[in-house]
Every structure is written in C-alpha cells, then in structure tokens.
Amino acid sequence: MDNPPTSIQSASAGGRFRLLDLTLPSPVENLAVDEALLDEMEERGGHPLLRFWESDRCFVVLGRSSRTTDEVNVSECERDGIPIFRRISGGGTVLQGPGCLSYAFVARRDLHPSLGDIRATNRFILDRIASALRRWEPEIAFCGISDLAAGGMKISGNAQRRTKRALLFHGTILHGMRADLIARYLKHPAQQPDYRANRPHEAFLRTIAAKAPDLKHAIAGAWNAVSSVAGWPEFRLQAGIRNVLERSHP
C-alpha cells in the first residue's frame, strides 16, 4: 500500500482512528449503531472512529428531510418486502444491501480545521477516500455536493450529521449492487447535482471493480485506522433503534 499523504495523517493528530468493522443482523440496528456512536462521541469524546458495515438484505433509507412519496417506489417496496427507514443525517434517498459497502466516520469537530463546516468536511473526507480508491478508479473524484464519481458516474453518496461537539459523516460505495435494482425501488430524484444531467439511475450509477475487503483495507489505511480492543457503546443501541423507528413512521 502506498503511504497516504501527510495531510491524511494529520487528520488523526489526536490519535489514530479506531477501526470498527461491525454489521449487526438487521437494517434498523445498523442504522442505530451510527447514531449511538455519534451520541457517545458528543457526550464522552474519545478517539475518532471509522466503521464499516454491509447489510445482507436490501432496504431503503431516506435522508432526514426526504419525502417518501417523492423518492421511493412504495408499491414495489411493499410488494417485495423492502423496508423503508429514515436516517439521522441529510442527503438523498439510497438503497442499501448486498453489494453496497457502508462506512461512517465519527469524530469531534475540533479534530481538524477542515471539519469546521459542511462543505469543507465533504471535501476533506471525500478527497481522502478518493485517493484511496484510485488504484481501481484513476479518474475518481469529488462531484456534486457529496458524491464520488468516476467518468461522470456516481459510485458513492454521502451525508453528515453535526452536533455541538461531534460529527457523523457516513456514506456508501457501490461495489456489486446493480443500478437496475436501485431503479426498481427508488424514483428519479427531484433534486439532483448538475453533473447528473437528468440521467436515469441506470445511466448515472455504477459499481467500482473492487471487493469489499479490499475497499475497507484501502480506506482504513488512508486514515491510519487500526482495530482496537475498545468496544462500542452497546448500551445506546436500544435508544438508537427507537429513534430510527420513530423517524421512519409518519
């Protein structure tokens, strides 16, 4: 693995990123873990953390302010038993499941000057993820508001949630999920980045030609993230689940 740039190393000036490779059995639990990690960082601080997970089943996740009827093919989801949830962060609606690697950065906002606002945070984190993925996609770059794209086609979408002292930045990388499957459950978005140029999902989304373990290794290396004996705040999980369920039902 190539040595990451100095600026990447400086991001963990307060200590190495802890690495948490954790997928729980259900979609709602996995969404709740990100929320639990953010709450823990807000209240207790600690070393920054990088989490990976990938669900074994498909489900739809709305952004905090997304409208279900505008963005989701509800009848198809109901017919196929695809649950619909709402996450704590903003951004657009996504389909998650097999072939879609999810990751989350959780840190104090004072970890690095570039975490001071939303736009700078998007650029800071996504530029470094892009640098880790260029071994497979030399043209990958930050696009739109919070995407990574190669050849003008989206590979990764991201969102963030900011509290008084902490930050959750999370997103997905498509490495095996087909665009036609996404088109089955998600409508064409009303709001879209300019570079999409009104293309349908099948002409806008694509996968990266890499396996999930290799992607995780590359991204963890870019952020100097190492496994730790320290656990995660399991005692916060039930509250996180309740929050996800309350947000997800009108």
Outline the structure in words:
This protein is α/β, with parallel strands linked by helices. It is built from nine helices and eleven strands. The strands form two sheets. The chain has an eight-stranded mixed beta sheet with strand order 7-8-9-10-6-2-1-11, sandwiched between helices. Strands 4-3-5 form a three-stranded mixed beta sheet. The radius of gyration is 17 Å and the shape is globular. The N and C termini lie far apart (47 Å). Mean pLDDT is 93; it is low at 1-14.
Strand tally is 11
Number of contiguous helices: 9
Helix content: 25-40%
Beta-strand content? 15-25%
In short, what is this structure?
The protein is an alpha/beta fold. The chain is built from 9 helices and 11 strands.
List the helices and strands and how they pair.
Blueprint: H1 6-10, E1 17-21, H2 27-44, E2 49-53, E3 59-62, H3 68-71, H4 74-80, E4 84-86, E5 94-96, E6 100-108, H5 118-133, E7 141-143, E8 147-150, E9 153-162, E10 166-174, H6 179-185, H7 201-204, H8 212-222, E11 225-227, H9 237-248
Parallel strand pairs: 1-2, 1-11, 3-4
Antiparallel strand pairs: 2-6, 3-5, 6-10, 7-8, 8-9, 9-10
Helix pairs in contact: 2-9, 5-8
